[in-house]
Design goal:
The complex is a heterodimer.
Chain A lengths: L1 E8 L2 E10 L2 E6 L5 E7 L5 E6 L2 E10 L2 E6 L2 E7 L4 H10 L4 E3 L4 E6 L6 E2 L4 E7 L2 E6 L4 E6 L6 E2 L4 E7 L2
Antiparallel strand pairs in A: 1-2, 1-8, 2-3, 3-4, 4-5, 5-6, 6-7, 7-8, 9-16, 10-12, 10-15, 11-14, 12-13, 14-16
Chain B lengths: L3 E4 L3 H13 L3 E6 L7 H5 L2 E4 L12 H11 L3 E3 L9 H9 L3 E2 L4 H8 L1 H11 L6 E5 L4 H11 L3 E9 L2 E6 L5 H16 L4 E5 L5 E9 L5 E13 L2 E7 L6 H17 L4 E9 L5 E7 L6 H7 L5 H9 L7 E2 L7 E8 L1 E2 L5 E2 L6 E3 L6 E5 L14 E9 L2 H14 L1 E3 L5 H8 L2 H5 L6 H5 L9 H19 L14 H11 L17
Parallel strand pairs in B: 1-2, 1-4, 2-3, 4-5, 11-15
Antiparallel strand pairs in B: 6-9, 7-8, 7-9, 10-11, 10-13, 11-12, 12-16, 13-14, 16-21, 17-18, 19-22, 20-21
The chains are: A mainly beta, B alpha+beta.
Chain lengths: ~170, ~525
């Protein structure tokens, strides 16, 4: 089960996909070739060792309000989660059956951007849900035509509540 | 010998002095300000006394509080370390009248050497070369000052007699700037130091900062332990020191040490001190000042003189022991370099960077010494300077010492505040530094800090670490798979911890980390 993490370093966005295998994690950055890393943590929380065929890496990883602070090679680097909820949404979207989009997390729907009958493109935002002062866009995973809208702007949704249904185009 | 020594300092130097005391079988008393309660020097001393609030004026600079702490704990001597009260003649007098031995020079010689004009006069009489200049300039008598300035030659420096640490100094490049500079220097000196006395000194530039370590006993003997090179400076603060100096030949060393010994004898000096000189490109040197205390950079001398313990010598001579008179011949052997590890960001113009030290790993291995106050969980207080530790290496040659320093700098892992380690690494690779082509203005004029760029591999690993950390903290349990049958027991165990979501540190809640 691969998971995708949108991360930002120095204002540059990266999409990092990791897949947990028996032998470690397969890591792919921006759709590039996956490389395998072996991970070890120790009794010191935050201390992380990665072993990869091109070389070893060790660093100290501390969680911050918007991501991670990583100290490696005597430099401190700030890594932000570009969109905190996108990964969870990604999972939810893959779990949604075709033609249905559900809420990736509980929150208030601040915007509904489509009406019944709209033709939507793959990845188009259909609604915005706000949780913990964070705006999260809800997108359709494939192109189609909106058939049902289950929520109203300003309304509240629980995690996995249906948001919209649509007819998937061929 | 003393029974119990109070160390009137904090941080790495307090630990440094305590270590020697312990080896000598002398008990230690620590003093500390409230925010320093958890520091190592407080925990490790035999006795500890809280002397007040965070600001140094309420604690480490309070003479009565420190004297009271010494009386209360029955300390029979006080070691002042460096900074704080170490060169304060009133503190020495307060120790004397309380019947507590001050481990350092007498109040009189401290006063005489602390005043730059009187120090110049003492050195002139002792036959120590001083920078050509003119003493006791009357800031209101511009005509005679102008005549003196012409004799000294331009460019010259107008200096405050009571100045120090680079303050109260003005560079005058042409005669027309003299009058304004004199007025400004004099009023600045009057307001900063309460003493308007100024003098003129020829501007020796480019110059190296070369200093000689001395230990003087109370019987008139003075030992000289060769020189240290401290030309790598920023804003008049040393950032790296080495010993010996690449520019000092055995012949120059002999002359430097002779001059330093004359300086100590001429001023009736006792205990450890450093005689500082400016040295020009021809190897001519001039007396600058005496630092009447143990220096931050004393370990480089210890390492090239067979591991001599300068603190032990300070304690010994304070107790009346004698030292060898003259240049100590057990060194110099090999090369020593010290990097000051400061909490400052070299990519942000060396802005201070302090806070919780999440984790620290000390460098070890052959030829490495790390004198430091750091431990995992230390919250660096904001009240004091940014020196976190001193990384010192010894090797057979300067080239090997530079490579060893690079290795040790890379081994030193500090998570939390940004440190100046990337700066020191860049310095070790700098061509001018490697060839020894440096002077006191070199760092500020010529050194360029390389851009903070990540290699592709560093970037990929950081991204992988962040993504894996996210996965470990959000997918608690449910997504984990069984461990591989192929992986070894140890690999599985190591990865098992990560798979189980061993808590990742969360900054301020540091103390609770890992306790679950």
């Amino acid at each position: 089960m691969a998971s995708r993490y949108p991360l930002t370093i120095d204002g540059v966005n990266y999409s990092v996909e990791i897949d947990q295998l028996d032998t470690g994690f397969a890591v792919s950055i921006d759709g590039g070739d996956a490389f395998l890393v072996d991970v070890a943590l120790s009794g010191i929380p935050g201390l992380m060792s990665l072993i990869e065929s091109d070389g070893n890496w060790q660093g100290y990883v501390v969680s911050t309000s918007d991501g991670w602070r990583i100290t490696a090679n005597n430099r401190t680097l700030s890594v932000q989660n570009s969109q905190a909820a996108r990964k969870q949404r990604g999972n939810s979207v893959t779990e949604d059956p075709p033609g249905k989009v559900s809420a990736p997390l509980a929150g208030v729907l601040t915007e509904i951007r489509v009406t019944v009958g709209d033709i939507v493109a793959e990845g188009q935002t259909v609604a915005v849900i706000e949780a913990m002062k964070m705006q999260n866009e809800i997108k359709v995973p494939s192109a189609g035509k909106i058939t049902v809208i289950h929520v109203e702007a300003g309304g509240r949704a629980e995690k996995s509540d249906l948001i919209v249904e649509y007819e998937v185009s061929d | 010998m003393f029974k119990r020594i109070l160390v009137a300092n904090r941080g790495e130097i307090a630990l440094r002095v305590q270590r020697t005391c312990r080896e000598l079988g002398i008990e230690t008393v620590a003093v500390y300000s409230e925010p320093d309660r958890s520091l190592m020097h407080v925990r490790e001393a035999d006795y500890s006394v809280c002397i007040g609030d965070g600001p140094a004026t309420d604690s480490y600079l309070s003479i009565p509080k420190i004297i009271d702490a010494a009386k209360e704990t029955g300390a029979d001597a006080i070691h002042p370390g460096y900074g704080f009260l170490s060169e304060n003649a009133e503190f020495v007098e307060a120790c004397d009248s309380a019947g507590i031995k001050f481990i350092g020079p007498t109040a009189d010689s401290m006063r005489n050497l602390g005043d730059k004009v009187s120090a110049r006069q003492i050195m002139e009489q002792a036959g120590v070369p001083i920078v050509p200049g003119a003493n006791d300039i009357d800031p209101d008598d511009f005509t005679s000052a102008e005549r003196e300035a012409a004799r000294v030659g331009f460019p010259l420096l107008v200096k405050a007699s009571a100045g120090g640490g680079g303050r109260g100094i003005r560079l005058v490049e042409t005669p027309d700037q003299l009058e304004d500079s004199m007025r400004l220097a004099s009023s600045e000196a009057s307001s900063s130091f309460g003493n308007a006395t100024i003098f003129l000194e020829r501007f020796v530039s480019p110059a190296r900062h070369i200093e000689v370590q001395i230990i003087a006993d109370s019987h008139g003997n003075v030992s000289a332990f060769g020189e240290r090179e401290c030309s790598v400076q920023r804003r008049n603060q040393k950032v790296l020191e080495e010993a010996p100096s690449i520019a000092v030949t055995p012949e120059i060393r002999q002359r430097l040490c002779d001059a330093a010994i004359s300086a100590a004898k001429g001023s009736g000096y006792q205990n450890a001190g450093t005689v500082e000189f400016l040295m020009d490109s021809q190897g001519e040197f001039y007396f600058l000042e005496v630092n009447a205390r143990l220096q931050v950079e004393h370990p480089v001398t210890e390492l090239i003189f067979g591991g001599v313990d300068l603190v032990a010598l300070q304690i010994a001579v304070a107790g009346g022991a004698s030292v060898t008179d003259g240049l100590i011949d057990s060194g110099p052997i090999g090369w020593a370099i010290e990097c000051r590890i400061n909490g400052e960001d070299p990519y942000e113009n060396f802005r201070p960077s302090l806070g919780l030290i999440d984790h620290v790993e000390y460098p070890v291995g052959p030829g490495v010494r790390f004198d430091s106050m750091l431990f995992s969980g230390l919250d660096v207080p904001i009240f004091y300077d940014s020196l976190l530790g001193k990384l010192i290496v010894w090797a057979e040659t300067r080239e090997l010492a530079i490579e060893r320093m690079k290795r040790a700098l890379r081994e030193l892992l500090i998570s939390g505040p940004q440190t100046n380690i990337p700066f020191h690494l860049a310095l070790m690779d700098n061509e001018d530094f490697r060839s020894g082509n440096i002077h006191t203005n070199w760092l500020e004029q010529s050194f360029v800090m390389p851009e903070n760029t990540l290699s592709e591999s560093e970037l990929h690993m950081a991204l992988a670490a962040a993504a894996i950390s996210s996965s470990l903290t959000t997918n608690t349990g449910s997504g984990t798979q069984t461990q591989s049958k192929k992986a070894s027991k140890w690999t599985s165990a190591g990865r098992g911890n990560s798979m189980e979501g061993l808590p990742i540190s969360t900054g301020e809640s540091g103390w609770l980390r890992g306790t679950r």
